Amino acid sequence: MPLRMNLSSRFPLVGLLIVSAALELGLNRVGVHLVSAEDSSSLLYRFVDRGGLFVFYLTGLLALAVFSWAVVVQLRDRHLLDLPGRMAVTVTAALFLPLAAVGLFVRLPNLLAPHLNSSFLLLILALVLAVMRRPVPTRAKIGLVYFALPLLLHGYWLLTQQLVAVAPTGRFADLPARLFEAGEHLVVVGAFASFLFYAPFPRRQAFFEPIPMAVALLATGGLAVATQYFYAPTAQAAYYGLSINLPPPSLQGGIHLVAFFFFVLTIGTLLPVPGASRTTAQGLLLLGLSGFHLQLPHQLLLTQVALLLLVRGALDGQGASSTVREGIRPLAPPTAEAWKTFFRRLSTDIGASQPPEVVLLSNEGTQVARLRTESEGLPVTLRLLSRGTEVLELELNVGQVPRLPATTTLLRRRGRRGRRVPDGAGPRLPVFDPQFVLRGGAGQGADHLSGEELREPLRRWVHGLLGVWPAEGVQYVARPAADSWPVPLGEVAFSAEDASTDELRALCELLCTVARRAGVRAGA
After folding, report:
1. What angle do CA 337, 341, 343 make, to 5 degrees?
2. CA–CA dist 308, 355 (Å, integer)
3. How far apart are CA 303 and CA 150, in angstroms?
4. Which of 17, 172, 178, 316 is the Cys-Cys partner for 168 at CB 3.0 to 4.6 Å?
5. How far apart are the C-alpha atoms of 270 and 163, rounded to whole Å?
6. CA-CA distance, 398 to 384, in Å (whole number)?
7. Is 373 exposed, middle or buried (0-12, 13-18, 19+ CB in 10 A)?
8. What confidence tens digit (pLDDT) does each residue in 242-270 have?
9. Burial level of 2, CB count in 10 A (0-12/13-18/19+)?
10. Contact by Cβ (8 Å): 160, 176
11. Residue 493 binned pLDDT confidence (cut-offs 50, 70, 90)
């Protein structure tokens, strides 16, 4: 069974890591510098210093544990990343993890520091390229690339400081510093544009809910007041904590405030929604807490955990067939009584004169529902293979279908969702409709499918493979997958008395008409 659970619910230390990272930011990166500027011998300074050292190691250990487990969860589910993506992430994570783990406890030698930075950059590239290969929303792909870009620029700048051999010379000597400044600007703009990448635009009313809006306004107002009246300590806190140069109150400072407002608003909007939205919000929050310093191992681990959460949020929100939209409680599959009720109504609608025979089998979330009835004397068998509220396969037989291949087959070139339908066996017969492929054995005609009165019903109702055995039976097989058409499985699960039988009735009537034209007799 694939691992499709939320990472935060699977491993609850993510929340503890966020709290620890916030304390580490406030005590270790900001508090020590601000308090020491006043009195390094005071009781407050000793408390901040020792408390900051404690949360420093705690954050590093938590980040190491969450990162290790997040990589394992990401790689175990083969439905998330394809094989090349999993291999790239595995190799780069194996290069990065040991160096980061050792760097939490001892200072890495100058010889190994560039390797830690290089493996950090390679892992970012592997995650981005792996997500680019998956069918995730385009906004999420652009957002991941955008947030990875300043990290890559910072890593390149740091690499030129660690290895003189890769540093440009001559007129390009200042290129790494310029790229570092560009990365800092991209961080600010990225905070502003985060709502474009991750805000729930299909639910605009949720985006402007009062609580997230009030939190964003209060946080931005507090930052504006601090910048206006306490600019020096606020600028120091931004520099030491996040490695961001906060400008004085001005138009440029206003841009920083607007960016901060939308960043907080995006997180506040996504965080209350369980599933992919909450995972994305946690990733954005950790990305902000890790800062742009990106030289200490625990900050590199925090950044990688944040990127993994963004990746997982994008993959979980891709709308896979086994998931439902966020905020909507999934329906349970139809019960045996619901199937009996629905099949009784269907039998009545197709003119059955005898009570239907219903068989239901269930195993590990998969159901097989079978209906045996008759329509105008012709035996009709309907078999549905489903999982949850999705039909995996529909098989409708009229008459007695032998084990031999069908004499004549009719199938669409493409199904309802535009996918190419697997071709059938046998030589092609003259095309009577460009939407279909008609095949039959040598010397076998297809008059039973070529009638003018059947053209429109075939175009409307046949989206799978239709096989005909003259004088024996007719079979229709389709694999509806996500939309479950023509079986309203969600309606059957919700209310079998009111579920629509129109599509199945029309399909049964069409197959009965084809069966009569093919010489299938009543009672066959």
Report:
1. 115
2. 56
3. 12
4. 172
5. 41
6. 15
7. buried
8. 888 888 888 888 888 888 898 898 888 88
9. exposed
10. yes
11. confident
pLDDT recorded at residue 126: 92
Identify which has the larger pLDDT, 481 or 440: 440
Q: How far apart are CA 416 and CA 411, in angstroms?
A: 12
312-350 pLDDT per residue, tens:
888 876 543 333 333 444 567 788 888 889 998 998 888
Q: Which percentage of the chain shows pLDDT scores above 70?
A: 84
Q: What angle do CA 244, 250, 255 make, to 5 degrees?
A: 55
> Among 134, 114, 119, 113, which Cα is nearest to 89's?
119
Q: How far is 283 from 310, CA to CA, in rounded Å?
A: 5
* Encoded tokens for 292: 């742009």
DSSP three-state, residue 378: strand
**CB-based contact 51:45 (threshold 8 Å):** no
Question: pLDDT tens digit string along 128-155?
Answer: 998 888 888 888 889 899 999 998 988 8
Which of 253-262, 279-288, 418-427, 508-517 is least confident? 418-427
Q: Is pLDDT at 518 greater than 70 in this prediction?
A: yes
In sequence order, the 6+-apart residues with CB closer than 8 A to the CB of 216 are 261, 262, 264, 265, 268
Q: How many Å is the maximal CA-CA distance in the chain?
A: 102
How many Å apart are CA 274 and CA 42, to the nearest integer? 44
Confidence at residue 41, expressed as pLDDT on a 0 to 100 scale: 67
CA angle 337, 343, 334 (to 5 degrees): 40
| Phi/psi at 82 (5° precision) | -80, 175
Summary count for the chain: helices (H), strands (E) = 18, 8
What DSSP letter does each residue of 443-504 carry, written as one string? T---TTT--GGGHHHHHHH--SEEEEETTTEEEEEE--BTT-TTS-HHHHHH-TTT---HHH
- Distance from C-alpha of 99 to C-alpha of 119, rounded to nearest angstrom: 9
Q: What distances in angstroms separate CA 464 from CA 117, 160, 300, 481, one per listed residue?
A: 54, 60, 52, 12
Pick left, alpha or beta for residue 42 (phi over 0 → left; psi -120 to 50 → alpha; otherwise beta): beta
- Mean pLDDT (whole number) for 196-214: 68
- Return d(Cα 466, Cα 464) in angstroms, integer: 7
**Residues 26-53 pLDDT 10s:** 888 888 878 765 566 678 878 888 888 8
